[in-house]
Design a protein that fits this description.
The protein is an all-alpha fold. The protein has one domain. It is built from 8 helices and 2 strands. It is elongated, with a radius of gyration of 29 Å.
Length: 155
């Protein structure tokens, strides 16, 4: 349970194992204890400096910062993995789904996946029975009719 800074609302978000490992790693860190924070970073500005350094080391052709990380979580990590938009809204602490819709970047892979699912739904064909299976089914129906007749059972 935590308090959101921007909206002052209380939230309870279950964390993924990777996040829990990071929290565990820094829970006894001097700066985290001193400031009551989860990560030992003195400011958002400092975090962005670190992220910029990581982007350079990784050879990313773009600037990496907390805002990009948040948008990536909102779009690539959650929405592209079929987390409903109303759930993403809560995870990001948005007041309305309208705010979250800005994160809903429709990627070509998502379009392809959804069209494939739709195609399967629309083009379902009834399974066809083989001739031997039909013969067995016909024989069983005749046997059932014979048993009903023998024991005087009506349909």
């Amino acid at each position: 349970m935590s308090e959101r800074q921007k909206t002052n609302s209380t939230t309870n978000v279950p964390l993924l194992p990777q996040a829990l490992k990071i929290i565990e790693k820094y829970k006894e860190h001097k700066l985290c204890i001193q400031r009551g924070t989860v990560l030992p970073v003195s400011s958002n500005q400092k975090m962005n400096e670190y992220l910029k350094e990581v982007a350079v080391l990784c050879g990313f052709p773009f600037t990496l910062n907390t805002h990009i990380a948040r948008r990536t979580f909102g779009s690539t990590v959650t929405l592209n993995n079929n987390v409903p938009i109303n759930v993403v809204k809560e995870l990001l602490g948005h007041a309305s789904v309208k705010q979250t819709e800005a994160y809903a970047i429709t990627e070509q892979a998502t379009i392809g996946r959804e069209m494939s699912i739709l195609n399967k739904k629309l083009n379902k064909t009834e399974p066809k029975m083989s001739k031997p299976d039909l013969a067995v089914l016909s024989r069983l129906e005749k046997e059932i009719q014979a048993i009903k007749k023998k024991y005087n059972i009506s349909s």
